[in-house]
Amino acid sequence: MELLELLFFYLVAFVAVLSGVLVVSCKSPVHSALALVNTFFCLAVFYVMLSAPFMAAIQVMVYAGAIMVLILFVIMLLNLGADAHRKYTHGVVWGAICGILTLLVTGFFVKRGSITGMQGDVTTELIQGFGHTELIGKALFTDFLLPFEITSILLLVAIVGAVILAKKEV
Q1: Which pLDDT value is given to residue 89?
Q2: Rounded distance, CA 45 to CA 59, Å?
Q3: pLDDT in tens, 31-61
Q4: How far apart, in whole angstroms, are the C-alpha atoms of residue 99 and residue 81?
């Protein structure tokens, strides 16, 4: 059974990497957004494989659902179809250089770093006793309430900004 899990992991990882490449290489912004949805679904499959079904459901509902609808509305409001084809080749060289530099720096830090072996407050016994959902909800609405609210305000500002940019006459 372990061999099948490993093969399934490699298959999903291959699809996720291929979808990620399509996100940055598609000429159409809509096709790029659809490839991003596929990447989000692959990430949800990884959460299921890690025995975190709540996180997988949140990944599908929030990112593959709500956030992608927001991104597609912004693409449609801004009408990026004609502009994206004209400006496609402009940043390819700079994007490739930045990507290669990021890959080299990441490889340097991964190779140079070491595993600390530190344990967090949340143990396997605690998760089995309370459950994933209760621990995430408690942390979200106690320790991380301010970042949660700031994120909601940023999303609201992004929606208002997209509507203002989409208007032809201000």
Answers
A1: 62
A2: 10
A3: 888 899 999 999 999 999 988 888 888 888 8
A4: 25
